Amino acid sequence: MEMENLKFLDELPTDFFKSSAQGLFKVFDGPTLVHLKSSKKNNNKKALFISTLLHGNEHSGIMTLQEFLQDKKELERDIILFFGNIKAAKYGKRHLDTQPDYNRIWTSNYPFVKKTLDYLKDQEIEACIDLHNNSGNNPCYSCMSKKSVEHYNLAYAFSEKIVYFTDPIEALSVVLSNHWPSITIEAGKSGDPAGIYRTVDFLNRLEKGLDLKKPLTIKPRVFHTVGKIRVDIDDPVTFEEDEFKGDGFLFRDDLETLNFQPLTIDSWLGRSDKTPIVENYSKNPNKNLDYFEIRNDLIACKKPFIPAMLTHDIEIIYSDCLGYIMEEEILELR
Asked: C-alpha distances in angstroms, 297 versus 162, 232, 237, 246, 256?
């Protein structure tokens, strides 16, 4: 696997604001950490850490940061930026074949991973935001992995739709949440203007200051990720009826419209003679993962759940997953 080193900067090159995500390789030659310092005197606000482009095909984070920082004369606080997979972004790929997934490595000893985490641990940080997009048609939502008031308030400030997840443990926001309030933002499809506008507004409010310790008046209800839906690499996948040869999977053409919609035992995902694989994300070894059954050649829901990130992207389906299984849960926060 390709191992890149980390570059440190104390300002954003002017060309950054003129570049597309695909052209960013002309500005940064690899993973880059940029520490922008506030010049305000007597500023006691802690820094914000914002990461983007961990997946090279998710470009909204770059456009968000360009809009967020373009005309700022003075920062309210220090902002530390991390730009991830520059090489994959050039080709619009999640990651290159020679690379690991940059959001599945943050417990590893890759040089840029260790240097980034070591640098952050030396800083006074208030919150960490990891900017992402979905490959499927999903609403804007936020993800948290710690049951704390600060994590919840941070997530809720971006969206009322909040996903609680604890896997993959190697994801950046999961690792950072062990030290600071940390969330992942899913800002719709890559390049979606509504998602970019919403994220810029959130970052502006966060820079000025949010009360993350604000007591809650109700017990929060979130979506808890309990399973990951996968198919075997050897199983053909299609969404076209005339391409289905009777083996593998023919998923319904409107699959992405099911995201964040409650599915019942009358719901179905497609046609096959076997069910997709469900990985346990619940941390409960006794969790019943029996969500699907074959009913008249249909992949039918055996019990209710709420899906997220269902996608038509065949490459994503094979390299990561078809989507996630969620259940609503009331969190007891610390």
From this structure: 34, 18, 15, 10, 21
Domain hosting residue 307, numbered range? 225-327
Q: Quick one: 144 and 242 in the same domain?
A: no
For the chain, the C-alpha Rg in angstroms (whole number) is: 20
With respect to residue 184, please indicate whether it lies within any of the assigned structural domains: yes
Instruction: Indicate whether 214 belongs to any domain.
Output: no
| Calpha distance 219→278 (Å, rounded) | 29
pLDDT band at 39 (very low <50, low <70, confident <90, very high): confident
Residue 256 and residue 322 in one domain: yes
- The two tokens of residue 155 are 């997530």
pTM of the full predicted structure? 0.91
| pLDDT at 2 (0 to 100) | 63
Q: Is residue 165 part of a domain?
A: yes
Closest CA to 162 of 221, 244, 104: 221
CB 130 within 8 A of CB 180: no
Token representation of residue 177? 């949440």
C-alpha distances out from residue 142 to 17, 93, 174, 254, 311, Å: 26, 23, 13, 24, 18
Count of the separate structural domains present in the chain? 2
Q: Could you read off the pLDDT of 219-267 as tens digits, one per residue?
A: 899 999 999 999 999 999 999 988 898 889 999 999 999 999 999 999 9
